[in-house]
Structures are given as C-alpha cells and as structure tokens.
Amino acid sequence: MRIFGTAAVTALLAAAIAGLPGGHAVAAPGTGVVESVEPPAAPAVLPGSVGAQRMLYTTTTVGGAPTVASAVVYFPAGTPPAGGWPVIAWAHGTVGLGDSCAYSVAGPGAVERDWAYLGTWLEQGYAIVAADYAGLGTPGEHPYLNGMVEARNVVDAVRAASGHYSALSNKWVVVGQSQGGGAAVTTARYATEFGGPELDYRGAVATGVPAYIENTLALMGPGVPPVKLGAHTTGYALYLLNGLRTTYPELDIESLLTDSGRYWLERARTECLSPFGDELVAHGVVIGDLFTRPLADIPDLRGLLTRYLGLPESGYDRPLFLGQGLLDTDVITPETLRFAAVLGANRQPVTLKVYPTDHDGAVNDSLPDSVPFVRDLFA
C-alpha cells in the first residue's frame, strides 16, 4: 500500500478547511474582463444568430488560480429591447478535454440537438453566452465536472460579455445539459454571490444533471466494474479521473493505475468524446482493468470527491428547473431524481419535470416547460 506523504495530506486538509479544492477561493481581481474578440470558427456559429463573437476573458480555475477562458456570444436578429437582450448563459455538455474539442472551436458535440435547442432560445429574444470552461480551447488543464470552477467560468463569461457588449442586459439565467447541467446547478447556487451587484441573476434550467457521481467514482478500482460499459460511460470515467488529478494533482492518481490505465488516462486529456468512445470500444477497454489499487486507498476519498463533484443541496436564492429523461443512462437517473427530492425536502425553489426519453431527448423535450419557466423569470 502506498503511503501518502505528509505534504500531500497537509495540502488536502488545508484545502478542505479553506473550502478551496474545487475553486471556492475568492475570485482573483480583474475576472470577467474581455481580453480579445474574434469571429468564432464556422462549426461554432449558431444558425440564425447575428454577428457571433468568440471572446477570451479572465476567470479562475482550480484553487482560484487566475486563467483565461473562451466563450462564444450569439446575438438575436433585430433591435435589442430597452436595457439590452436578456442573456442565456449556456453551459454545454461533455465534448472532451482537448482544446480542439472546445465548443467555441468545434461547435456542439450533438449538433442537431444543440442547434435546435439554442435556436429556440435565440428565437425567444435571448442573447446566448456559451462558455467553454477553463482549459478548453485555452491553455491549462480542464478540471472536468469541477462544479465550482465551471460556475466561476460561467459567471465570469456573463460578466465579461455584458460589460463588453452594450446590446446585452445584465439580466441573465443559466441553462445547461449533462456536464453543463451540473455546471448550471452549481452556478445557480453561487450566481448571486459570484456575480455581485453588476449582474442580475434570475434562475436556472438544467437537464440530464449528473447527481451524486461521487458515489460511483469512489467505487473504482481493480475489477470494478467487471463488465464493459457503454463507450460514453467509459470515456466519462476517464475524464473524471483526469478531472480528479487536475483538481488534486498531489494525489498522484497515476500511481493507482496499470500501464494501460496510465496510457488511456493520458489519451483522455486530448481526445474528444465521440471518437474517443469509438476507440475505447474498439480496444475493449474495461475501467476495472486499468487499476492496480482502488481509489479508496486515497485518504478522505469521499470528502475529496464530494468537494470536487458534489452538487449543492441548499442555498439557492432563485428558481431552479430540473428536466430529466426517465430513460437516461448517461447519468444515473435515480440519483438525479433523489437529488431533486433532497432539494425539495430542503425547501429549495426547485421544479422537477420528467420525460419518457433518454439523455439527449430530454433537452428539447423540456422546452415546452422550460421556455415559459424562463419567461416568467424575466417578468
């Protein structure tokens, strides 16, 4: 058994006490400032938008460290209303970890689904600010599913865009799917605090939310699971391990892995989800075969994973809409429903709607409910 050094344990404890491991640090001065703008790559231009721009803006990453992230801003056609276009902050789902996978570079992973979805919001008269998250399309590692980092990135993207473009209002909501559903939920909890008096946060919509993923990740180790998973699920697991080592580099995650495990972990750093999933299937990769020791050997694993992956169960100050497909196997649907129940029991302002569809289907199937929900937030 490997003994974790005193320095590593001390760093973990200090981070836990300070609440910093997922990025709880107070934002560095100067965040939410546009550094440059340019036209986005053609695959990232939302059909029907006018004058789309890719912007680089200042934000933070793990531990509150300053960084620069990218986002795309989409404007509706026509003349902005008095006060500017209200803003939808779009938190996208998993695309991969490599810079070439970034939303502002390659566009959405599910093109037809996302363009239909975002196009609906555009037609409703909302501008859209789509953040890439730290480390996607810009230097540095992307701490996958680190909700606090993603929340900082989303809020700073809205602050940067609304401060830079006079056509945008400071009134906004966050909308997200899958990885972005988790990001939207964490953003919803901290949006008022992170945005400050400059922004007027109204609420959130999240579909396909990956709730209590920390409980599953904690079980990983030799022989777990004993069967092949779906291509995306295996890819998600490797992205999660990368997110864990990016958030807590002192853990030396590689020391728990076989040579094959280290190879696939490194491959995950630069691969986009769909082609990576195809390659994992072609090679018959089973997550349990990639470990020499269980993740549970890490001290305070449950606490670390909860601070890295856990979704807030209280403290929401604006309405939150959760949409979930009952046939969704990309997230653990019973856990997502449990999360909604916990929020309800905690008297949080949550609305849950379920749909007889899968992970992708819930995105657009939720629109008849989420469009009026958001409209009421701006009333």
UniProtKB/TrEMBL annotation:
Keywords: Signal. Pfam families: LIP. It comes from the Bacteria. Transmembrane segments: none annotated. Residues 1-27 form the signal peptide. InterPro entries: AB_hydrolase_fold, Lipase_secreted. PANTHER family: LIPASE 5, PTHR34853. This is Lipase family protein. It comes from Nocardia fusca.
